[in-house]
Amino acid sequence: MNHKKILVTGGAGFIGSHLCERLLNEGNEVLCLDNYFTGSKDNIVHLLDNPYFELIRHDVVHPFHVDVDEIYNLACPASPVHYQYNAIKTIKTSVMGAINMLGLAKRLKAKVLQASTSEVYGDPHVHPQPESYWGNVNPIGIRSCYDEGKRCAETLFMDYYRQNGVRIKIVRIFNTYGPRMNPEDGRVVSNFIVQALKGEDITIYGDGTQTRSFQYVDDMVEAMVRMMATDDSFTGPVNTGNPGEFTMLELANLVLDLTGSKSKLIFMPLPSDDPRQRRPDITLAKEKLNWEPKIQLRDGLVKTIEYFDKILK
Ligand code: NAD
Ligand code: UDP
After folding, report:
1. Angle at Cα 174 formed by Cα 266 and Cα 299, nearest 5°?
2. Which of 2, 151, 159, 245 could be a cystine partner for 279, CB 3.0 to 4.6 Å?
3. Which of these, 93, 122, 119, 117, lies nearest to 34 by C-alpha position?
4. CATH number, domain at 221?
């Protein structure tokens, strides 16, 4: 069998667990590395009796040596609540994690993919955002540990590529949602669904007119796997996201509609540096990966609501 040995850092997290599952289903051997800061064994417990799945407790700020063909580097808290909880650790995770994984890829001549983010565009002045846009990021604000950490990781990836010929891939992920999001992590989709299901007030930050584009996790994983399979001359960065753009008020009303909840909307202060609008230009992904998202927000929310309904009971 033509299976590969693949390391997934952050594999016990929301996206990482779906990726591990997908790679195992394709017949690969998967090493899942995590320090369980925001991830959980519950996300991968169903994979544990697969002999081709291995779990490693490790923190990516420390070097790690293992023999693999490919590395997906996802380790990093992704929700504002969690990445701001220990900002210094967040930036160390992005920067030192990138250096450690790039060093490993260099030694092994392995491919390495970085889970970057639409946050590299900050509060964008160009809309929708193409990969050629350099962004509008505050380097000293409360989101900077994440945004600048991820920007620095991209820099490192490009420098290892130019200087050492490391086989790199960069994907810029736009807001992704789905089953196995941490119900406590404060992101908008999980917050609204959990609040609606519990009959609690729905917390709209600011006036709710800010926009985001939400992609369902299966579409995201498909894009990552396709990106890894491109030939070495294509490094990215490439945007992966769903171009459907919604205000937070629209999202809240859709969640109320789909859950049949009687929760009320309440308005709370907008956190500082919260981007006003965000929507990916996915022209490059269509061209290079022959990919576009298939799951519309309403359908993805139904599956996500089902998941939260089950775990909250
Ligand atoms: P998540 O918090 O569920 O997953 C991150 C995983 O990394 C967790 O399992 C966590 O325990 C682990 N981790 C954190 N710090 C670590 C460290 N120092 N060493 C080892 N493991 C560590 O978040 P997610 O949504 O699954 O995000 C996965 C990746 O995708 C992240 O790199 C994130 O920045 C990126 N991303 C996600 C989104 C999104 O909307 N979900 C958007 C853009 C980018
Ligand atoms: N948001 C909100 N209510 C919440 C959580 C978030 O209105 O309970 C808003 C938040 O201010 C932001 C958007 O939803 O404008 C997306 O927030 P999230 O933390 O999910 O992701 P990010 O800001 O990193 O895109």
Report:
1. 70
2. 245
3. 93
4. 3.40.50.720
When divided into structural domains, the chain yields a total of 1
Q: How far is the CA of 300 from the centre of ligand 2 (A)?
A: 18
Who contacts 65 (Cβ-Cβ below 8 Å, separation ≥6)?
104
Residue pLDDT, tens place only, 134-180 = 999 999 999 999 999 999 999 999 999 999 999 999 999 999 999 99
Catalytic residue, chosen from 72, 121, 146, 161, is: 146
Check: pTM over 0.90? Answer yes or no: yes
Q: Quote the mean pLDDT of the chain.
A: 97
pLDDT at 1: 52
In a domain, 126, yes or no: yes
Distance of CA 169 to the CA centre of its chain: 15
Active site residue 146: yes
Which residue type, as a one-letter code, is found at position 8? V
Report if residue 206 sits inside a domain. no
